[in-house]
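ok trying again, last paste got cut off:
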Amino acid sequence: MGFRLTTLNLNGIRSAADKGFVPWAESLGVDCMGVQEVKAQTEHIAGRFDTLDGMAGHFHLAEKKGYSGVGAWTRHAPTEVITGFGNAEFDAEGRYVELRFDAPATASGRPFKKFSVISSYFPSGSSGEDRQAAKFRFLDAMWTHLQALKAEREFILVGDINIAHQNADLKNWKSNQKNSGFTPEERAWLTKLFDPAQGGLVDVYRRLHPDTTDECYTWWSNRGAAYAKNVGWRLDYHFATPAVAALARSAAVYKDLKFSDHAPLTIEYDFTV
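nice, full thing came through this time. structure:
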């Protein structure tokens, strides 16, 4: 028994469905799946994507049509679902859904009395200076939120973070050091987040695979045959509190089928909810 958790940026749930996402997802048998860039409204979800392989879906959709949006399907009923993280600017963009699995004080056999799975989509800054500035505002707000959350519960945040952390996390690191997603400031934010003395969270994939390079990529540009040449970036993560990260057993990036410009990342943990 364990807890298998997948994350995938869909780049549009309807587009991914046209590429075979649903039967693939239903074949996985995961406990939970977080998705980003849903790019849909409630009427597009209802009756088509609100359940998946018996898992109930919970979504935080953007006010703007065809933009952003996150979701999470779960095989286990959450005790609470939270949409948004209390920031008006970014909550309007549909970037955060949290499923809480809290056990009664009298429960036994559960390693975590308070545990959450979060699906989040961090902004991209690649379209210009205004969006890069927004990305930095998001990182500041998310830092404060995650530190407050860590003080009261265990969690895994999965999602498209839109930042490659180290040189090993992208093919062309030398030529991208001034580009959004690999700026020194963004990389420093992750370094601080993963510092036990500061952010105190764990990059779970790197805990399991500290040395991978070409195998670790989860996103490829649609330009210049990047996918065929494996000129990729590692932009999709599991961030976990240390007690949860210590129970991670295996991680895999799936590349046999392509549903979007991102690849799914699945990690199995040695606990149940």
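cool. The first helix runs from residue 13 to 18. The longest strand covers residues 114-121.
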